[in-house]
Amino acid sequence: MPDPVSQGILPGGDDILLRRAFPALPALFAILIAVLPSIPDSTILISGGTGSFGKTMATHLLEQGCREIRIFSRDEWKQDAMRADFQDERLKFYLGDVRSRPSVDDAMAGVDMVFHAAALKQVPSCEFFPMQAVLTNIIGSANVVDSAALHDVKSVVCLSTDKAVFPVNAMGMSKALMEKVAQAKSRALGKQDTIISSVRYGNVMYSRGSVIPLFMRQIKGGEPLTVTDPRMTRFLLPLREAVRLVEFAWKNARQGDLFVRKAPACTVQDLAEAMCQIFEVDLPIEVIGVRHGEKMYEALASAEELRRSEDMGGFLRVSMDGRDLNYNKYVSEGDDPGVAEDYTSDNTERLDLEETKEMLLTLPEIQHELAAWRAR
Ligand SMILES: NC(=O)c1ccc[n+]([C@@H]2O[C@H](COP(=O)([O-])OP(=O)(O)OC[C@H]3O[C@@H](n4cnc5c(N)ncnc54)[C@H](OP(=O)(O)O)[C@@H]3O)[C@@H](O)[C@H]2O)c1
Known about the structure:
- It is a single chain.
- By secondary structure, the chain is of the alpha/beta class.
- It has 15 helices and 15 strands.
- It has one domain: Rossmann fold (3-Layer(aba) Sandwich), CATH 3.40.50.720.
- It has helices at 16-21, 25-35, 52-64, 76-86, 101-108, 123-128, 130-150, 170-188, 211-220, 239-252, 268-278, 303-306, 327-331, 353-361, 364-375; strands at residues 43-47, 68-73, 91-95, 113-116, 155-161, 195-201, 225-227, 233-235, 258-261, 265-267, 285-287, 299-301, 309-312, 315-318, 343-344.
């Protein structure tokens, strides 16, 4: 049986913590590698392909030997930088905007798989310009799934976020509606048609605008590390795990499925302390209070969704709500409440300080910063 580590699907031996956090993965991936179609011979479209997810996914797909990757996004400079960085003829660049259906159609012809990552994802900008979030995250996503179905694409995976669960801001609301748009399209399609699925994950560790780069800047500046509330918890997910989630969804999706990556979490206090210990600094940790629109913990799946979910080791599959538009099923007929709790960063596996440090040290960005810090 092929080994998922040597295949590059799972991290190597120094990534013990991840393997402990996601124990069922090696066996599951070995089975998948053995029985599922491989990426070679596929033409893959990544909307938002110049973003953090897109670049990491493109690297992974090129290593797997795919035939062609189409990078679809708006900014020609980011595309040019990526072209220069990758220098791989299998990468093709498509300038376009998900809001413009003709530009999506141009890129879609002849595609086997779509990873739909293009999005407006900053909470404050979507809060001030909610209609921009509607245009990109909802209407743009409808353009992508409609075009994919029309062009007989085999599979589309739409990337969503924990902020779509019980959304409290325009960004989360627009992503929640993206999920609904994807599922509504799935309902209208058959099992033999384009399979449309979604994935949900929480903040990617070290992503732009997140707390770890902020702590890093504060450590470099010798400033106090600012935490909102020491008890606040957050899921910990490295970018490579987001890529694996999307790959898992593509390989396992049935029509309308939504996949969630089970992930460990820690408190923001432990995260700040872990950063100080890794960089061997003795800086105060200052509590600044919870910011507008921020939750004490994040949810990846609601109790209602968990009732129709399947535990797949490191992943949860939430099946599409298959009820037809019969109002009785929504209004007058009850259902067994079953699972009572949502799946949140508060009730998932909690990493302690040492484990948080270990997890942080697996990040290439932290390894790079640490080497520069020690060499200064
Ligand atoms: N990063 C996280 O922590 C996180 C967590 C959960 C879920 N996600 C989801 O994962 C996906 C990818 O995130 P990311 O971190 O890779 O984002 P990112 O780095 O900000 O990249 C976003 C990409 O989308 C493109 N884009 C934006 N608007 C577009 C439009 N209207 N038409 C076409 N392309 C457009 C951008 O390029 P141009 O500006 O050149 O168009 C860029 O390539 C998003 O859907 C996000 O919601 C991210």
